[in-house]
Each structure stands twice: as C-alpha cells, then as structure tokens.
Amino acid sequence: MYLKREYKAGKQSQAEAHEAIRITHPHTTEDLESIVYNANITNQDALKLYQLIFERTIESQGKNAIYDKQDLLFKIKNEYFKCSVKGLKSAGFLAMFSKKELENDESNDDKDNKEKEQNAQFNLKIDDVLSLNDLVLSTIKRNAPSAYKEADFVKLLENKGIGRPSTYASYLPTLVKREYISISQDKKHIITPTHKGKRVVEVFENAYQFIIDLTYTKQMEEVLDEIVENKSSYVDFISNLNSKCPKIEKLERNDDEIKPSSEGQITYIENILRDLQLNLSEEFKNYKEDNRVAKAFLDRYIKEHEFFKKNNKKASSSNNDENRPATPKQISFAEMLAKKHNVKLPKGFKYSMKVCGDFINEYHKK
C-alpha cells in the first residue's frame, strides 16, 4: 500500500518557490484528535481542513491504483463498435480512504463509467459471437473549444512547460503592446489574436516553423538554465540557432502576394472610422495598400457598424416624423379619439406626424 515518494516541482512551475501544503510532522490517525486539540483547533471547518491535509499527505506516499482494462471491438453487420471496461486490481492509495469516502467518490463519477467498471473483466476470445440484447442511441453534444482567458494563461504555460515563473507576468502585456493579441474588457477577459498576430504566426509557420515549436522552446529554456549554471556556452547556443536560420535577416513578405484594397473596401472603412469615431490603430494603418488588412478591419468592425446604422436609421426616422405634417386620415382619427375620451388635442398635432401618432397610440386602446 505504501511507497516512499519524493516530489519536486519543475523549474517552469510556480510551485518551485513554495512549500507544499502538508502536515509538519507525521502522526497516526488515532492521534489526529489530540493533535488538533493541543493546537487549539476547534472550528469545525478548520478541523475538516486539517484532516484533509493529513489524509492527502499520507496518500502521497501510497502506491498507484492498478486497473485491469479491456478494449472490446464488436462488429455488427458492416459497422464496428468499441468500448473499454476496467476493473480495480490493486487499490493502492485508494485503500487509505474510508468506505464512506469511496462511496462518495463513486457517486461523483459518471453513471455510465460506473456501470462499465462493474464486472469489467469478460472471458472473451477473438471472433466470439454474442447476442445483442439491447441497442440505445444517444446524442452527444460537444461544445467548440473555448477561447483562452487571461486567468488560464499561466496554467497553460505550466502545462506546456514554457517559460519560468519570473517571466510569466510579462508575456501578456508584451503581446498586447505589440498588438499581437487583444484582451476583452469584460469580466471574462478573453484573449483574441489580432490580424497582425496571426500574420506573424503564418510567417514563421511557412518559413521557420521550428521557432514556434513547443519542444524547441522547452529545449531552448533548458539550455538557458544550463548557461546560467555555467554548464553550457552562450556562444555555442547562438551558433546552433544561427546555423538553423542563416537567412532569417532577409525574411520578408512577398510583395507579389499583397494586393491593394478595392475602392469599395477603402470607402467602407472610412465610413466606419467616421461613424464609430475610431482612431486608426497601428495594426490597420496599411489598409489601403493591403487588402488582407482591410478585410481584417472589416471583419472586426462590420457588425458594430451595422448595429450603429440600424439605430441611426430609427433615430432619423423619428426625427423625420417630427418635421412632417400629419396625414388627413391621422388628423381625423385623432379628432375622433379626442371627442370620444373628452380630452384636448395636443398642441401642433396637425403639423407633426410624431405628435399626432403618439396621441393616437395613447388613446386608441383605451
């Protein structure tokens, strides 16, 4: 059940600079109550927290749970169906849980997975014929991958093994400053790549893909650590990098691929800038010379501009009604409503379609 283990955080982990949350000295489960009593821990939440820390500390020195797993492939006519089942072979650290905790843990699992784990081992051979007792069709809805949030960024770097805790905080501000990404100003703080950022990635993907490869980045940072520890030479590192990209200083976009924007695109962009009162950012300054930049600008602002035009049209229509006289039919209907409800007609109702219309709307349903 027990196995001595030593845990150490990697250099890219923020945990490297922090002590683990653990008990300060080992003791038996039976001594748990006396330990917390002597430490004057009387709050129930604090008691539960210490018990949790104690149990997790002990479990960290336990063996892994071992499962027997079977992958089954069934053929029904010309279609193949696959399922995987498993059964617990050796509980390992799971045996340290009380029976109640195991039941609670199981209750949180997916019911289908629970059923699969029961009686998981089948005595089957290849080409065995089985009877189909039941067939259930289910629809599984999968959401599209969600966009990265600002709060998820450090965790992403840690999982990918990129960067160091001392540099994590500088990444996003640098990317925003260079206009490679934008971060939404709402509560979600969604990270969105800009047109400029996408173009930078495309350039490296097409020419020097190794530079944006995660494996290369991790290896590079390991070499930098060795340089700091005087285990490797800075010159050797740079020489190796230079040999991989001897012409990197000549890397430029092919001007033949760039097409100027059409007059329609330019006019549309200028209308958007005027109507939305936008200042042209550095990212879109070449919208006249590069139709890809123009397209990126329109993709970002066209919906907002359509919304603006729709609201502006309503306001304009309302203003026009104020300046237009009421129709004879409206005037006659308004006079009839005034007589019926014994109310005075609004001032100037004959000369304003809006004033007359508002009066009719107010008394028509009374």
Automatic annotation (TrEMBL):
This is DNA topoisomerase family protein. Pfam families: Topoisom_bac. Residues 1-249 form the Topo IA-type catalytic domain. Keywords: DNA-binding, Isomerase, Topoisomerase. GO terms for biological process: DNA topological change. One of its GO terms (molecular function) is DNA binding. SMART domains: TOP1Ac. The keyword Cytoplasm does not apply. The keyword Ion transport does not apply.
